[in-house]
Amino acid sequence: MLSFSYLLVPLLSALATAAPASHTSPNIAARSNGQANNLDLIQKLLLAPKGVDRFTLIKDDADFKFDFNNPPANSATTGLGGHTVRADRLSYPPIIGTGVGMTVGFLGPCGFNTPHTHPRSSEINIVVQGRLSTEFTLENGAKTVHNDLETYQMTVFPQGALHTEFNPDCHDAVFVAGFASEDPGVQQAAQTFFGFDQDIVEAAVGNDFTFEGKDVDTFRKMIPANVARGVESCLAKCGIKKR
Fold this sequence. Notes:
Blueprint: E1 2-3, H1 4-15, H2 39-47, H3 51-57, E2 76-79, E3 82-87, E4 101-107, E5 111-117, E6 123-129, E7 132-137, E8 144-149, E9 154-157, E10 162-166, E11 173-179, E12 187-188, H4 189-193, H5 198-204, E13 209-210, H6 213-222, E14 228-229, H7 232-238
Parallel strand pairs: 1-13
Antiparallel strand pairs: 2-3, 3-4, 4-11, 5-10, 5-12, 5-14, 6-9, 6-11, 7-8, 7-10
């Protein structure tokens, strides 16, 4: 009988290293507009009966500008492999009523935007610096679609599809992701799965594996924060030490 720990530990180890990230995290203390995270304004914008009413609620022209280099608080997700910054209705209220949103990903060498889904929107993703290796699976029974994207090449991830982006090079990569929603949402696959109760996780991997209860917490601790570092061949090529 195969040990679940024996199979999964190498997989999770390949996702993360203990080396500090060389990629600079965003300055989240400096806000690009004064209305970010303003719940009172967001409620008024959502309730405004007409577009012109929403428009007049935003008094300062500068509030229509969003700076991905100095994003508002709570809009950046940072890990060892880089960071992503999202412009959604919370961090960028002027988009309320437009039906669009955006994320910019800054991936360091071997940076890995771990497998995830967007439950409320499809995504179009264009590389503006470096290269990306991408994969997605639409649903059960669908084939896995793999593409290597050069600078200014684009792919699409359908709504709800499990997908990932990986920087295969030893220098930074940047992508821009557009969404047909002001609130596309995001759910990381591995982090979500190991957040379930122990008996659910054990049942999901099947009876062909042995699974000790103490392993659940071990695996949870090993799952890296997004954006992570991997894949092992890239780490070796770039001289990045594994965890």
